[in-house]
Amino acid sequence: MGASPSAPESKHAAALLSGHDAACIEAARTIAEADVFLLCTGAGFSADSGLAIYADVAKVPAYAARGLEYRDLCQPFWLEQEPELFWGFWGQCYNDYRNTTPHPGYEILDRWAERRFRHSAIAEEIRRGLAADTEEAAEEDGTEEPYHVTDHAGGFFVFTSNVDAHHFDWFKAGEIRECHGNTEVYQCAMPSACTGVWRAPPDFAFEVDKKKIYKNAKILLNLLVFLKKTKNINKSL
After folding, report:
1. Taking Cα atoms as reference points, which of 189, 176, 193 lies closest to residue 83?
2. CB atoms within 10 A of CB 159
3. Which residues, 6+ apart, have CB-to-CB distance to 45 below 8 Å?
4. Is residue 165 predicted with pLDDT exceeding 50?
5. Rounded-to-integer distance, Cα 235 and Cα 211, Å
6. Closest by alpha carbon to 168, among 144, 187, 154, 150?
7. Superkingdom, according to UniProt (predicted)?
8. Segment 171-197, tens digit of pLDDT
């Protein structure tokens, strides 16, 4: 499912290249003078790791034969009407994300964050403010987080629409906000059956029929057995 990053048209590319050096200098100066770094990423950021962007992720013969595009496959009704298709699509995405190494840009940004934005006086002030604002809410919530959060964010924050969970490989969990969640985290469709959310086990992988993009029911059952053993899931599931 991998794809190369998209390229601009020649006229646009020429305009970008002509101002490349000046843009880099301006960006470097802005970052050097900043107190806070808000990193916003989308599908293009994942593409540099070799992952398909949203426009290409569903370009598979099995889906094309049925006239299905990405926006069609993301509809939740598939989970009830055709669960094999639902889990085949998301299972293949999950496998691809786990089998792909994040590109070097993550390490570069983490280095910048560590050097300039996590340990400054401004960062400590922000961290204290966040701690005061969220202490009461955390006590009321009481649910177990799927990621180990050791501290509040300081002067570095990430907001992403990506669902590959690669940001957690480099950045601190408390710094990351995902508007779409990610394929590593699961919750019950029936609130009465279980509570909370959880991560898939480290060694789990979906078995997908590449020709049909259908999941293997036995593999999915193994995931459910793991969840029953580790979380509060009753027998009604």
Report:
1. 189
2. 15
3. 105, 160, 162
4. yes
5. 34
6. 150
7. Eukaryota
8. 999 999 999 999 999 887 776 767 778
- Distance CA(237)–CA(218), nearest Å, equals 16
How wide is the angle at C-alpha 147 spanned by C-alphas 141 and 151, nearest 5°? 75
3-class SS string, 52-80:
CCCCCCCCCHHHHCCCCCHHHHCCCCHHH
Provide the sign of the torsion angle of the four alpha carbons 37, 54, 189, 75, taken in this order. Answer: positive
- Over the stretch 3-57, which tens digit does the pLDDT of each residue have? 455 677 888 888 888 888 999 999 999 999 999 999 999 988 998 898 887 778 7
Query: Tokens 């995902």 — which residue?
Result: 178
Q: Which residues of 180-198 are buried (b: 16+ CB within 10 A; e: fewer)?
A: eebbbebebeeeeebeeeb
Predicted TM-score (pTM) of the model is 0.77
Q: Residue 47: name the closest of 6, 101, 106, 94 by CA.
A: 6
User: How many of the other CB atoms lie within 10 Å of CB of 216?
Assistant: 16
Run of H or E including 37: strand 37-41
Alpha helices in the chain (DSSP H): 10-18, 20-33, 43-47, 61-64, 70-73, 78-81, 83-98, 104-112, 121-141, 217-230
